[in-house]
Amino acid sequence: MKDNRGSGIWDAENVDARTTVDLGERSYHWREYTTAAGPVRGWAHHGVVVGPDGEGLVTASPDGRALVHLRHAQGRRTAELDVTECHGMSVDAFGTEYAIWIADNGTKYDHRERGDHLDVDRPGQVVRVDATGHTQQVIDDSALGEESRGWRPTGVTSESERDGGRIWVADGYGRSRVHCFARSGEPLWTTDGGDGGLAFASPHAIILDTRRPVPELLVADRNNRRIVVLSTEGRFLRSYGEGELTSPSGFALDGEQVWVTELHGAIVAFGLDERVAARLGDTDGADAAGWPNTIVGDELERSELVGGVFRSPHGIAVDASGAIAVSEWVIGGRVIVLTPQ
After folding, report:
1. How far apart are CA 230 and CA 150, in angstroms?
2. Rounded distance, CA 228 to CA 242, Å?
């Protein structure tokens, strides 16, 4: 396998775990993909989105600074991006050209030793790039109110040009707020979710839910273990998932269902009735020392990952064929694609 960084091309190896899992009423083939040319120490902490053809997948390298295109005869790795982490990723709904929004929280840790050691600390930002990684727009926190500056964006979503082209950002690692921006980058509103009686606690992901006649925003309010529903103007509408979720971290729409990643080890589907429709995995493993990795002596090492068993689902996407892609938060990274049988 070659790592031709100079040309921007990289052959993405895939590893077939030869495993079938049952999810709801369907069976899925479990296939694993690597996102680096050989073993790496980087602790992957990124998202995944559907590629420009509606079937391929785009994720990030474990170091968080390059896009990796999967499910093609030849994977394409872009030149390194000017970001610290492709933490939250979503396809831009604006216009006709394919583009990706990246929520870059601005921090990267070195996890070679026991414990966390801050290795990179840059201002958080939200960046729009094309399929080759070329930067088209950057939104920072300079125009936000003083109480919102110092953000660490973790999720981003957008709407079509017809609907106004607004962009919504979840600041899950900074001030625990959700922001709305005009297409120009001008701030329109900010909320801490407190009008619903409980302020956000790490709003980790956000998605524009278009399954109903009037679109709504879903927020993965991770530390409150729930999903919060907002109007597109930022008004609290309701919440659900209490008692069902432990660590909601990512969203993907799939017909009338929305898939939610549970960082502690599962993916869960909710129907339009906001009840659990399907679940794969459990969240018991997060109690292990060093999770989601393993402590060996004084070193933090990649855990032995098992086919058919999630370790730490982070990002999620569903392509046109109904395949579900999940990126995991773990040393070296792992992307799982569940293909319906």
Report:
1. 23
2. 10
* 171-to-123, 154, 186, 312 alpha-carbon distances in Å: 12, 6, 16, 21
At residue 290's C-alpha, the angle toward residues 289 and 295, to 5°, is 95
Contacts of 258 (CB under 8 A, 6+ apart): 207, 209, 211, 218, 251, 252, 269, 270
Distance, C-alpha 111 to centroid of its chain: 20
Does residue 234 come out as left (phi exceeding 0), alpha (psi in the -120 to 50 range) or beta?
A: left
Q: Comparing C-alpha atoms, which of 12, 25, 118 is closest to residue 58?
A: 12
What is the DSSP-derived secondary structure letter of residue 68? E
- Tell the residue number behind the tokens 């999940």, with chain if given: 326
- The string of pLDDT tens digits covering residues 64-75 is 889 998 875 555
Query: Peptide bond before 123: cis, by omega within 30 degrees of 0?
Result: no
> Which tokens in the block code for residue 196?
């619903």
Distance CA 79, CA 61 (A): 11
Could you report the per-residue pLDDT of 34-75, keeping only the tens digit for each?
887 677 777 899 999 999 888 789 999 988 889 998 875 555
Residue 270 pairs in a beta bridge with: 258, 276
DSSP character at residue 222? G
**Calpha distance 128→181 (Å, rounded):** 13
